[in-house]
Automatic annotation (TrEMBL):
<keyword id="KW-0833">Ubl conjugation pathway</keyword>
<keyword id="KW-0808">Transferase</keyword>
<protein>
    <recommendedName>
        <fullName>HECT-type E3 ubiquitin transferase</fullName>
        <ecNumber>2.3.2.26</ecNumber>
    </recommendedName>
</protein>
<dbReference type="InterPro" id="IPR000569">
    <property type="entry name" value="HECT_dom"/>
</dbReference>
<feature type="domain" description="HECT">
    <location>
        <begin position="149"/>
        <end position="310"/>
    </location>
</feature>
<dbReference type="Pfam" id="PF00632">
    <property type="entry name" value="HECT"/>
</dbReference>
<dbReference type="InterPro" id="IPR044611">
    <property type="entry name" value="E3A/B/C-like"/>
</dbReference>
<keyword id="KW-0436">Ligase</keyword>
<dbReference type="InterPro" id="IPR035983">
    <property type="entry name" value="Hect_E3_ubiquitin_ligase"/>
</dbReference>
<dbReference type="GO" id="GO:0061630">
    <property type="term" value="F:ubiquitin protein ligase activity"/>
</dbReference>
<dbReference type="GO" id="GO:0006511">
    <property type="term" value="P:ubiquitin-dependent protein catabolic process"/>
</dbReference>
<dbReference type="GO" id="GO:0016874">
    <property type="term" value="F:ligase activity"/>
</dbReference>
<dbReference type="GO" id="GO:0000209">
    <property type="term" value="P:protein polyubiquitination"/>
</dbReference>
Length: 310
């Protein structure tokens, strides 16, 4: 209904509107129609923001609030000010990404100090020691880490690599191999050959494999993968895991929103199918000439199944 340049103007207004409602304290005490108005405007804003994330139409730095200094926001968060918390909850995109990363690292540091996970002059943090065979890295890591408590997983984990005979690897600094272990584990679990995850055609983005159930403990494996990714984020370890955007939308809970459209996410799964599907809307002839059926074929472990949608 709108041209792209009109969407830029509309999104700029909505972004300012939502920011002002939060920063001026209107949302904190909002009730009835005011609260409904906020959620309605915020919903429309996020539809446009997520569309821009999928395929950029707005200029660079369009979503940032130049009048909001990150240092001011950090100070308000330290004081537990409600408006700062609401800002992070509803429109974190108004803050530059690098500042959000710094904020997160600061939160992690404070939590580690609170949990006693930081070395001090008077105390040493608890250390979890695990022994890993390189030939069975995934199996050993899964067995030794999956049962760890939340605080133990956040703490220090020391890895000792041994060969298949149980002999320690020579010349390895045992304090510095956890990052290597984590990177190798993540590389293995996201390998499509393991069949926990698959890749999309074209850009090869990762998403859970529909046939992951061939692993008897596949749900526990997915939970373990989540813990390993969480540990990487918590420790500031950068890993190369290119998830498909439709899967990320599911993780973020966007599919629960009334504004969510699975058709919008379809290009990230199968761009060719999306192109063919949307071309039907612009087809000028008799649609029956195309011989379409409401069905789909699925290849499961080499066996192709035919499924009717009606």
């Amino acid at each position: 209904s709108f041209k792209l340049e009109e969407l830029v103007t509309i999104s700029s207004f909505l972004n300012s509107f939502v920011f002002k409602m939060i920063w001026d304290g209107i949302v904190e005490n909002a009730r009835g129609e005011t609260l409904e108005l906020f959620h309605s405007v915020h919903g429309w804003l996020m539809v446009l923001y997520e569309r821009d994330c999928r395929r950029r139409f707005a200029p660079e730095d369009h979503w940032l609030r130049k009048d909001l200094k990150p240092s001011v926001l950090f100070q308000e968060l330290d004081k537990d000010k409600k408006r700062a918390q609401l800002l992070l909850q509803y429109i974190p995109h108004v803050i530059p990404h690098k500042n959000r990363v710094l904020l997160f690292r600061n939160m992690v540091t404070k939590e580690k100090e609170k949990l006693g996970l930081v070395e001090t002059s008077s105390a040493s943090p608890h250390v979890t020691h695990i022994t890993i065979r390189r030939s069975r890295m995934l199996e050993d890591g899964y067995e030794q880490l999956r049962q760890l408590s939340q605080n133990a997983m956040k703490g220090v984990i020391r890895v000792k690599f041994v060969n298949d005979l149980g002999v320690d690897e020579a010349g390895i600094d045992q304090d510095g191999v956890f990052k290597e272990f984590l990177e190798e584990i993540i590389k293995k679990v996201f390998d499509p050959a393991l069949n926990l995850f698959k890749t999309t055609s074209g850009d090869e983005r990762l998403y859970p494999s529909p046939t992951s159930y061939i692993h008897e403990n596949y749900l526990q494996l997915f939970e373990f993968v989540g813990k390993m990714l969480g540990k990487a984020v918590y420790e500031g370890i950068v890993v190369d895991v290119p998830f498909a955007s439709f899967f990320l939308s599911q993780l973020l809970g966007h599919h629960h929103s009334v504004f969510y459209s699975s058709v919008d996410e379809l290009p990230s799964l199968d761009s060719e199918f999306y192109k063919n599907l949307t071309s039907i809307k612009r087809y000028d002839g008799d649609i029956s000439d195309l011989g379409l059926t409401l069905s789909y074929d699925e290849d499961v472990m080499g066996q192709v199944g035919f499924y009717s949608l009606i």
